[in-house]
Amino acid sequence: DAGVIQSPRHEVTEMGQEVTLRCKPISGHNSLFWYRQTMMRGLELLIYFNNNVPIDDSGMPEDRFSAKMPNASFSTLKIQPSEPRDSAVYFCASSRNGDLAYGYTFGSGTRLTVV
Amino acid sequence: ILNVEQSPQSLHVQEGDSTNFTCSFPSSNFYALHWYRWETAKSPEALFVMTLNGDEKKKGRISATLNTKEGYSYLYIKGSQPEDSATYLCAFPVRGGSEKLVFGKGTKLTVNP
Hints:
The complex is a heterodimer of chains A (115) and B (113).
Chain A lengths: L4 E3 L2 E4 L5 E6 L6 E8 L3 E9 L2 E4 L8 E7 L2 E6 L8 E8 L9 E2 L3 E5 L1
Parallel strand pairs in A: 2-11
Antiparallel strand pairs in A: 1-3, 3-8, 4-5, 4-9, 5-6, 7-8, 9-10, 9-11
Chain B lengths: L4 E3 L2 E5 L4 E6 L8 E6 L6 E6 L5 E4 L2 E6 L4 E6 L8 E8 L7 E3 L3 E6 L1
Parallel strand pairs in B: 2-11
Antiparallel strand pairs in B: 1-3, 3-8, 4-5, 4-9, 6-7, 7-8, 9-10, 9-11
């Protein structure tokens, strides 16, 4: 398996533009997580899905952020409109449902810069 | 709010030194504790998942212990090498059995040759 695949690796956009981040989890993993990493707050969970259903989105900072998982192999995180304070590294991770023996597998992250 | 604390925040050691750092977590309703290793410009990688009080896990020169009664875990690195330089994160489920993990801010280890 190629692991968790995120795209793009880097994104630079202007304030006010829409940004879409993409994630393909590991096949057979039915939980998917979106995290944001900043210097100030470390790794923060934004939202997680189980069997494609959003379970907890309490970490989504505001209505400008939305996430979808239309099927077991694809998820998107969208920011519309983007702001400079959204600049961060966004990680997607997946795990097998209830299988804590191996922890999460993280993707390589998307470094977002909003200017 | 669930608090997962790691100390120290950063650590510089010489090649060959042994070192250890700490993760503190709530001792009530313990379910599991995760350790991750995060190298610069890469993604976090799972090291250990620990579930039993007194558990000790080992992977090469890295080992971890767990005390669920007092709410701490230690990560040890024996004979540090420059390739051990990374940020070491611990994480704790928000609720017992939950897959939602809260991460500590990490200990950044630098091993000087």
